[in-house]
From TrEMBL:
Cofactor(s) the record lists: FMN
Protein name per UniProt: pyridoxal 5'-phosphate synthase
Pathway connected to this protein: Cofactor metabolism; pyridoxal 5'-phosphate salvage; pyridoxal 5'-phosphate from pyridoxine 5'-phosphate: step 1/1; Cofactor metabolism; pyridoxal 5'-phosphate salvage; pyridoxal 5'-phosphate from pyridoxamine 5'-phosphate: step 1/1
Enzyme type, top EC level: oxidoreductase
Length: 224
């Protein structure tokens, strides 16, 4: 007997705002992404266009994990995020498997961008440059949190924050150093897919792909 589901088939949402064909696409997928990202930033109904799903997998188990992060930098080499790379779950994944995936979803624009590739740590100079833009509280938070480690209670975390607040008392915001375990990770893309929602789930999908970072990009339309 089939068990009654807790949640079953929410009302179907139809994508019907735009179309995508090859004539609209730029030759370089980084340029194409920049165009779409700029459009998302200008849309008042997309309040956080830099929000991403970041996927990683630990080896040899193959266990996959995802989390929502904020994308922070783009250059022609790839997409960069910043985090704790000592204790976090994603740090453990990346230490055993450098491959990762990123997904942007702009609901109001009915668009996705899917990125798959390998990862590399950015230079210390890049990490420090970004760290210096963070609010004081976020800098102290980076020193205080052993990300993903168990806590007995919130008070334990607050004590670490209070201790580091005292530690950096009187230190100007721009002189609080970046922890050596904290910094940037770049996803160097080997595949970038642009997805435009269409009615009846007959979406427009175009994939830029290459076998390695030195090859030219190949553009292919994919079935929805």
């Amino acid at each position: 007997m089939t068990e009654k589901p807790i949640i079953f088939a929410p009302e179907t949402y139809q994508y019907d705002k735009d179309t995508l064909d090859e004539s609209k696409l730029l030759k370089d997928p980084i340029d194409q992404f920049t165009k779409w990202f700029d459009e998302a930033k200008l849309d008042p109904r997309e309040p956080l266009p830099e929000a991403i799903t970041f996927a990683s997998a630990e080896l040899p188990s193959g266990k996959v994990s995802t989390r929502i992060l904020l994308f922070k930098e783009l250059d022609h080499r790839g997409f960069t995020i910043y985090s704790n790379w000592k204790t976090s779950g994603k740090a453990k994944d990346i230490s055993t498997n450098p491959n990762a995936a990123v997904n942007f979803f702009w609901r109001d624009m009915q668009r996705q961008v899917r990125v798959e590739g390998f990862t590399e740590f950015v230079s210390r100079e890049m990490s420090e440059r970004y760290f210096n833009t963070r609010p004081r509280g976020s800098k102290i938070g980076a020193w205080s949190s052993e990300q993903s480690h168990p806590l007995a209670n919130r008070d334990e975390l607050q004590k670490l924050v209070d201790d580091n607040t005292k530690r950096f008392d009187g230190v100007p915001d721009d002189k609080i150093p970046c922890p050596d375990y904290w910094g940037g990770l770049r996803v160097v893309p080997l595949q970038i897919e642009f997805w435009q929602g269409r009615p009846s789930r007959l979406h427009d999908r175009f994939l830029y792909s290459r076998n390695n970072e030195n090859e030219p990009w190949t553009l292919t339309r994919l079935a929805p």
